[in-house]
DNA sequence: ATGGAGACTTAGAATGGCATGG
DNA sequence: CCATGCCATTCTAAGTCTCCAT
C-alpha cells in the first residue's frame, strides 16, 4: 500500500527525486517495524501526604483523612478556582468517587460535599504554585536539568535504524476527569495507573524495559503491526491509551505524507464524485438521497463524518451523519438568499458550529423531506451512518473516507487563497499577513475555534487606546492652521502608524475566536507552504517553528517551488 | 448488519518559557 | 532589569475508521 504512494510520488509531474530517507525500507502489508526497543513509560511521582499543619475540615471540625481519601481531596482542592467545581454534575461525580476511596468511618462521617472545607489545602496548593514561580535561577536550572535527564532516559526509543523521540512517554497522572462541554462524567476520579495495568510492546530481541522496583508489567507484547510502545486502559470511558512516537518520527511522517497523497488523489477525481452525488440527490432510494445530501455537506462545509456515540457516556455532540432535526432550520428565504440552511449544533470538543448556508434546491427539498414527521430529537439521516458512507466512498476511490474531504478542501483552499492573496511584490510582512489570511480562511472553513484569550479584552483596549491617542494627535496636528513644513513628514508618519495599528487591531479582532494551529498542523499539505516560501522568497522559519519544521521534514526535503497540490 | 475493541489522528486548554519594551 | 504578554510545548480528550466476532 505504502510503496504505491511512493510510486505515485515518483511519477508526479515536475517532482524531483529527493526522497532519500523517505523511500528506504518498505515493509510488507501491515508491518510497521522490524526492531523496537525502549525504556517503558515514565510514571508520575507517588502521592506526598499533607503536612500536619494543613487540615481538611468537615462541618467545621478538622478531620485527618486516610491517604487514599486525602489524595482525592487534594485533587478537588487544587481545582477550586476553576468553574468546574461549581457544576452540579462535576460535584456529584466527584463526591461519589471520592466516597469510594474513603474508609468506612470516613464514609459514614462525610456525607455532604457542601460541609467540606478544602480551604487550607487549596491555600497550600496556591502557595506551592507561587513558590515555583519565584524559584531562583539556580533552582529553575536544576529542575530543568532533572527534567532533561528524564527525557534522555525515557523520551527516546530505537525503531529500526533510527533513534526516535517518543511523543508522550509519561503515564497520565491521576486526577479528576475534565471532559469538554457538558460531559456527564466530569468530576469522576481518573485513577492512578500502575505498571500492572500497562502493556509493553517491543521487539523480542530487544532489551525489555524493567518495571519499576517491586512491580511487573501487565504484559509484554511483540506486535510489529502496530506503532505503539505501551498502552493501558483508562477507567473513565474504558478506552485504551497509547504511548506513541513523536510527530517528527519517520513513521509518523510517512503516514502524514500518505494522508496528503490520498487527498491529492481525491483532487483528480473529485469532479466525478461531485456529479455522482448530484445525481444521487434525485435517486428513488431514500438512503441514497440521504447519503448524497450528507456528502454535499461534508464536501461543501467540511463537516466531520459524525459517528454514533453512546448516550450518557460523552457530551452530546454531533457530526454530519449524526445531525438531528433540531440542529437544522430551513429558510425558503433569508437575507436575500433562497434555500438557506441554518446549522446550529455542537461538534467535536463541544465547539459550536453555527452557519447559514444557501444550498441548491434539490438539497433543500430533500432536507425538507427528511425532516417530515420527525421530532426535534430524531436523526436527520435515519437511513445513513458513517460506515455506509465510507463504504460507498472507498468504492469510488481507494482510500477515500469522509475525513479526506476535509484534508482535500483545506489544502486546496490554502493553495487557492495563497495564489489570490499574495504577491511577489509585497514586502515580507505583507506576504506573511497574506499567508495568515489564507490560513485563516481554512480555519474558518474547518470551524477551528478557540476561547478568546483571557487577556483579550484588555490587550484590545490597550491597542485601541494607542489608536485613539494617535488619532487625537493627528487631529490636533491637522487643525493647526499654521503651516509648518517640518510637521508634514511627522503627520505622514503618524498616519502610516495609525493605519498599521488599525490593521493590527482588525487582524487581532478577526483572530479572536479562530485557531490557526490545528489546520496548519493537521490539514494543510506542508508542501504547499514550502513551495510558497520558495516562490515568495520567505524564509520557512517565518511560517513554521522548530517542531513544525521537524514534523514536516519529509515535505521540506522533497518540495520544489513548482509543487502543486 | 451490528456492535465493540483497537489504533490512530485531530483538538483546544493549560502550562511553561522566553523575548520585549517600559 | 523585570514584568508582561506572547508563542511554543505539553497534555490528554475526542474524534475517525478498521477489523473482527456474532
Our count of domains comes out at: 4
CATH architecture of the largest domain: Alpha-Beta Complex
- Classified by CATH, the class of the largest domain is Alpha Beta
Number of strands: 15
Total helical segments: 18
- Dominant shape: globular
Largest sheet, strands/sense/barrel? 4 strands, mixed
CATH level-4 homologous superfamily of the largest domain: Topoisomerase I, Chain A, domain 3
Unreliably modeled segments: 1-21
CA radius of gyration is 28 Å
The percentage of residues in β strands lies in 5-15%
Q: Widest sheet: strand order?
A: 10-9-11-12
CATH topology-level fold name of the largest domain = Topoisomerase I, Chain A, domain 3
**Portion of residues within helices:** 40-55%
Question: If you had to describe this structure to a student in words, what would you say it looks like?
Answer:
- With 565 residues, the protein is α+β, with helices and mostly antiparallel strands.
- It folds into four domains: 36-44 and 139-247, DNA Topoisomerase I, domain 2 (Beta Complex), CATH 2.170.11; 56-138, Orthogonal Bundle (Arc Repressor Mutant, subunit A), CATH 1.10.10.41; 252-403, Topoisomerase I, Chain A, domain 3 (Alpha-Beta Complex); 408-464 and 501-558, Orthogonal Bundle (Topoisomerase I, Chain A, domain 4), CATH 1.10.132.10.
- Helix content is 46%, strand content 11%.
- The protein contains 18 helices and 15 strands.
- It has helices at 2-11, 67-78, 88-101, 104-109, 119-133, 137-154, 250-280, 286-301, 361-371, 386-396, 402-421, 428-445, 456-479, 485-510, 517-522, 526-536, 546-551, 553-558; strands at residues 36-38, 56-58, 61-63, 116-117, 156-159, 162-165, 175-176, 189-190, 199-201, 219-221, 230-233, 240-243, 328-334, 337-346, 352-358.
- It has a four-stranded mixed β-sheet, with no helix packed on it. It has a three-stranded antiparallel β-sheet with strand order 1-5-6. A three-stranded antiparallel β-sheet has the order 3-2-4.
- β14 (337-346) and β15 form a beta hairpin.
- α7 crosses α8.
- The radius of gyration is 28 Å and the shape is globular.
- Mean pLDDT is 89; it is low at 1-21.
- The protein binds a DNA duplex (22 and 22 nucleotides) through β12, α7, α10, α15 and α17.
